[in-house]
Design goal:
By secondary structure, the chain is α+β, with helices and mostly antiparallel strands. Helices cover 15% and strands 21% of the residues. It is built from 6 helices and 9 strands, in the order H-H-E-E-E-E-H-H-E-E-H-E-H-E-E. Bound molecules: copper (II) ion.
């Protein structure tokens, strides 16, 4: 909303009278992410983040996610690191190497070397730290996600938002009409079916050029450009950095 107001001001010329630095130094920055399917879920979506200091107004609109099961949604990645969504569908470059157990799926654990550890949990209420990564009673359950929440980000996350990724979990892998009947344990929790936690979509967060690029003073348009595909399997994130308890123990399960 602030951005819209800003655009209106700019259109009237009110802002143009100010030095560019004064006009934009404190203005909110817009970030976006396009969610693309993982594990051939067929799901997609868009993420918009209005960042003002460390306050992030986050909106997620999904399409064709499974309707009626909690979708854990996280920011993944080492802030300032070189994580990428990585190979998430059969046929993607590097998929066979990432799919360690050769089951044709990228489990949560198999995806971590590329997209990194959980940095923020996009819960609907309460805690948003990695501690809430599997807080299944506080995540969206609809097929369109319809997520909107304003949260406070850790400073280092706010400073490095465009090095992170949004991952949405849970998919009906066998198109049975329900989640939880695939018959393979989750790589995170053997009590859960792999469908409950598997990546369904991922999108890289990038700074939008809309936040004042007209003056040329923003300098944000290139911020998200550093994530080369070659870095996908660089293994930047060690498993020890993951915020999931017991993850390493279950690594060979899925
Ligand atoms: Cu995640």
């Amino acid at each position: 909303m602030v951005r819209r107001m800003f655009t209106t001001l700019a259109a009237t010329g009110a802002v143009l009278a100010l030095p560019a630095t004064a006009a934009f130094a404190q203005s909110p920055q817009t970030y976006t992410a396009n969610l693309s399917q993982a594990n051939e879920s067929g799901a997609s979506g868009t993420v918009t983040i209005e960042l003002d200091g460390t306050t992030a107004d986050i909106r997620i609109d999904g399409r064709d996610f499974f309707d009626g099961f909690p979708h854990a949604i996280h920011f993944h990645g080492e802030p300032g690191g070189d994580n990428v969504c990585g190979p998430l569908n059969p046929g993607d470059p590097g998929f066979d190497e990432a799919d360690e157990d050769g089951d044709g799926l990228i489990s949560v654990v198999e995806g971590v070397p590329a997209y990194g550890p959980v940095t923020v949990s996009l819960t609907t209420e309460g805690d948003t730290s990695p501690d809430s990564a599997l807080a299944v009673d506080r995540f969206p359950t609809s097929g369109t996600l319809d997520y909107q929440r304003t949260i406070e980000l850790p400073q280092e996350v706010a400073d490095h938002l465009s090095t992170l990724h949004v991952v949405v979990h849970a998919a009906d892998l066998d198109d049975s009409g329900e989640i939880g009947d695939f018959g393979t344990p989750s790589s995170l929790d053997p009590e859960l079916d792999i469908e409950a936690t598997i990546p369904a979509a991922c999108g890289q967060i990038t700074a939008s050029a809309a936040g004042g690029v007209a003056t040329g003073a923003g300098g944000t348009a290139t911020e998200g450009g550093g994530n080369g595909a070659a870095a996908a399997l660089a293994g930047a994130a060690g498993l020890s950095a993951i915020g999931f308890a017991g993850l390493r123990r279950r690594r060979d399960e899925a």
